[in-house]
Design goal:
- It is a single chain.
- By secondary structure, the chain is an alpha+beta fold.
- It folds into 2 domains: about 10-70 and about 170-280, Cytochrome Bc1 Complex, Chain D, domain 2, CATH 1.10.760; about 75-160, Cytochrome Bc1 Complex, Chain D, domain 2 (Orthogonal Bundle).
- About 30% of the residues lie in helices and about 10% in strands.
- The protein is built from 10 helices and 12 strands.
- Strand 8 and strand 9 (about 215) form a beta hairpin.
- The radius of gyration is 18 Å and the shape is globular.
- It starts with 15 loop residues before the first strand and ends with a strand.
- The model is unreliable at about 1-25 (pLDDT under 50).
- The chain binds heme C (2 copies).
- One heme C binds near residues 200, 216, 239, 247 and 281.
Length: about 280
């Protein structure tokens, strides 16, 4: 396994301070309205680390508390809006999601734990967004939603909620292996003016303060995430985009093949962590 070195030249651009490296050891238990969330798990075999942690573990107590019941979680407002959207007729076929998915969003329990995943008919790895847009275009005769847009993030949050508490379990072998390998390569590739890889921050330095933020392992089990910074739900690929901009790299495009590969790889690094959706983050 490639192992990147720790932050070096780039440090000058940030304020790093250690001393709280094992934040996780002091973390309270996350239980959301009685559903217990696994915020730590043994690391998957392919990782050169022992334990994996949800980003929730690294947030301050006030932010953590917002996620402990749905009444306080501002992300749930967007889930409520998505529930209205679920029943809204759109497109040339005169259908809503509810017209076909008769059991309601509950039909999708468990789906979030295994996406992105290989879609045999399409002959490609599909994200949740791909599935939703396929239904919109092919079955409803409606316009696809923008990946990372408000409608899509709300619907993905509604679908993710049906898997809350279930462990992430994306497949990385078989036909998904090629996409996964690209994701792994990108994760360890240095980009941008700061010449940094995802791994430099999220594998080598998690627990460390960077500016006013504590670095997490950059896990995706909490997405879509409500960010206090922009007061809305954020899709996982938009988060990748933000991280690339922070290292002054030209980001890949949201909805493009590089971020999809990265999404699968990052999801696999979190196999074993519970789906939180929607989470609350800085
Ligand atoms: C300069 C350090 C740095 C680099 C490099 C970096 N990130 Fe981040 N990332 C952050 C910070 C800071 C945050 C916000 C605090 C946290 O959760 O770590 C963050 C957050 C995240 C999150 C959200 C985690 C959560 O639970 O909310 C994900 C996912 C993520 N990064 C993925 C990536 C990926 C993929 C790459 C490579 C393309 C990358 N990051 C590169 C600093 C970095
Ligand atoms: C005209 C019928 C129809 C409508 C309307 C429709 N879908 Fe679907 N959808 C299907 C069919 C058929 C499939 C493939 C079989 C399956 O998995 O249910 C599917 C698959 C899916 C899947 C993947 C499920 C899986 O387990 O692989 C998701 C997610 C989904 N639809 C979401 C939606 C959403 C969200 C809407 C509304 C925006 C919607 N669908 C509207 C018929 C429809």
């Amino acid at each position: 396994m490639k192992k990147v070195t720790t932050l070096c030249a780039a440090i000058s651009a940030f304020t790093l301070s250690t001393g709280f490296a094992n934040a996780a050891a002091h973390a309270p238990v996350l239980s959301i309205d009685g559903v217990v969330i696994a915020t730590s798990a043994p690391a998957p075999d392919f990782l050169d680390m022992d334990e994996i942690f949800s980003g929730w573990v690294y947030r301050i107590a006030e932010t953590q508390a917002l996620q402990m019941n749905d009444f306080d979680n501002p992300g749930m407002i967007f889930v409520d809006i998505a529930l209205d959207t679920w029943n809204r007729v759109e497109g040339s076929e005169g259908k809503s999601c509810a017209s076909c998915h008769l059991a309601g969003p509950e039909e999708f329990a468990g789906l979030r734990t295994v996406t992105p995943r290989w879609n045999e008919e399409a002959g490609a790895v599909w994200s949740m967004e791909d599935y939703v847009n396929y239904s919109r275009v092919e079955y409803m005769g409606a316009e696809p939603w923008k990946v990372g847009g408000a409608d899509m993030n709300g619907m993905v949050a509604l679908i993710s909620l049906q898997s809350r508490g279930m462990p992430m379990n994306v497949a990385i072998d078989g036909p998904a292996a090629e996409t996964w390998a690209l994701g792994e390569e990108l994760y360890f590739t240095r980009f941008g003016q700061l010449d940094m890889a995802c791994a430099n921050c999220h594998e080598d330095n998690y627990g460390v303060m960077i500016r006013a933020d504590r670095l997490s392992q950059g896990q995706s089990n909490g997405f879509p995430a409500y960010r206090l910074k922009n007061a809305k739900l954020n899709g996982i690929q938009s988060r990748f985009l933000g991280c690339m901009q922070n290292i002054r790299a030209t980001p890949f495009s949201v909805g493009g093949p590089e971020f999809l590969a990265l999404e699968l790889y990052v999801a696999s690094r979190g196999n074993g962590l519970s789906v939180e959706g929607p989470s609350v983050r800085n």
